[in-house]
Design goal:
Elements lengths: L5 E5 L4 H11 L3 E6 L10 E3 L2 H10 L2 H6 L6 E5 L5 E6 L11 E3 H10 L6 E4 L3 E6 L4 E5 L4 E4 L1 E4 L6 H7 L4 E15 L7 E7 L3 E7 L4 E9 L10 H12 L6 H10 L4 E9 L4 E2 L2 E3 L2 H4 L8 H18 L3 H20 L14 H14 L2 H10 L20
Parallel strand pairs: 1-2, 1-11, 2-7, 4-13, 11-18
Antiparallel strand pairs: 3-6, 4-5, 8-9, 9-10, 12-15, 12-16, 13-14, 14-15, 17-18
Helix pairs in contact: 1-9, 2-9, 6-7, 9-10
Length: 400
């Protein structure tokens, strides 16, 4: 019998349901509270790598993830005339496309279906106050209802409000100087199963990717030192997006028109979360709320899944939650710090200001995609693409 049996998780995206999956396997009584009135099914492509794939396999959901693949066959770098300057097929060396490429909403749905019978989901509700005691944590919700739990874990994303209730402004949000907008747009004849990357002058990039729902996923990113743009209203943000798209060329008009039509534009400053501690008494945080590495790393989903698996395992094998938290952080923090170390020049090198800079990006991409470089790359390519070296060791904890 676990001492800390009753657990509340805030957030029904990826880290939260994954944690709930494992905790329920270990015999915990788990409730997930989600601010949205239903599952948030929107979002763009996610890439599940290495240790994340290993955990998905242990959960019995790997085949479902692969079956829900977006269908993307690789990435093309194109110019303003849509001429291909470089191509990286999904089955080639140095590919940008993962075998386990899945839309965020599809992964959320898979996780929900594998937890809904063992975990209580409460939608349209969020935490407004937290009161800790030696033997419990009292939680107040937005409907003024109060409930006591043994543990509370925030898993509600990079802009987590639960994190602020637990830690105040102690965790630091490190803005990278890059803004990104993601939204779903109708598919047209020129769209293929290739993802297409277009670099424009003025430090701007457009990316159009296929999905498995009969639409396509568009994103537009640009560099800016103004950290306050992310604080503006949705209407003001859309206005800025259209201004930034102006004069970019390629699919500029299409993406601009769809911004006004779309009701699922997600716009945010790309930031990392750096927290000196992830736990405070009987409360804590995981996933993007605790250690968002940014989409630039391609490892956010893997960190969320692996972190959830390890935290549940440590809680299952320690009688005291304090000991579990210490063991978890000892194992997880080095992995997080490695992932959060962005390569030099990211994101600036991929967002050049001048025509010359754009030409350099496309030329370098062309060289990297050349048959000679690909042949060299294959000599060093792992026979098992699922394995990422020096990532993190995953102990095989036995469930009850």
């Amino acid at each position: 019998m676990h001492v800390n049996k009753k657990v509340l998780i805030s957030g029904a995206s990826i880290a939260g349901p994954t944690l709930a999956f494992w905790l329920s396997k270990y015999g915990f009584d788990v409730t997930i509270v989600e601010r949205s009135k239903s599952l948030r099914m929107g979002g763009q492509n996610l890439d599940i790598r290495g240790a994340g794939r290993a955990v998905a396999r242990m959960m019995g959901i790997e085949k479902e993830i692969l079956a829900a693949n977006t269908g993307e066959i690789g990435l093309q770098f194109v110019d303003s005339d849509n001429k291909v300057k470089a191509a990286f097929p999904s089955d080639g060396a140095g590919s940008f496309t993962s075998e386990a490429e899945i839309l965020r909403g599809d992964l959320v749905n898979i996780l929900y279906n594998h937890t809904k019978n063992d975990v209580e989901y409460v939608f349209g509700k969020h935490i407004t106050a937290i009161n800790q005691h030696d033997n419990k944590v009292n939680v107040t919700f937005n409907d003024d209802n109060k409930e006591a739990y043994d543990l509370l874990i925030a898993a509600d994303g990079v802009r987590s409000t639960t994190r602020a209730l637990i830690f105040g402004d102690e965790p630091k949000v490190k803005f990278t100087g890059l803004y990104n907008a993601w939204y779903t747009i109708p598919k047209i004849e020129t769209d293929t199963q290739w993802a297409r990357w277009y670099t424009a002058t003025g430090s701007r990039v457009m990316l159009i990717r296929p999905d498995n729902h009969g639409t396509v996923r568009a994103s537009f990113s640009f560099l800016s030192d103004d950290a306050d743009i992310q604080k503006l209203s949705a209407g003001e943000q859309k206005k800025i997006l259209k201004e930034k798209l102006s004069g970019a060329g390629w699919e500029e008009k299409r993406l601009t028109d769809e911004i006004e039509k779309s009701d699922d534009v997600y716009f945010d400053g790309i930031s990392q979360i750096h927290a000196p501690r992830w736990f405070n008494g009987r409360t804590g945080m995981i996933g993007d709320a605790a250690y968002c590495p940014t989409p630039l790393t391609g490892m956010g989903t893997t960190l969320a899944i692996v972190g959830a698996y390890l935290l549940a395992a440590e809680l299952s094998r320690h009688n005291k939650h304090e000991d579990a938290f210490i063991a978890y952080e000892k194992c997880m923090r080095p992995f997080v710090e490695k992932v959060q170390s962005l390569p030099p020049g990211v994101p600036w090198l991929a967002h050049p200001k001048s025509k010359f800079g754009v030409a350099v990006v496309n030329t370098v991409a062309g060289i990297l995609a050349s048959s000679f470089v690909k042949r060299i790359g294959k000599l060093f390519e792992s026979k098992n693409k699922d394995v990422t070296k020096d990532e993190i060791e995953l102990p095989d904890f036995k469930t009850v």
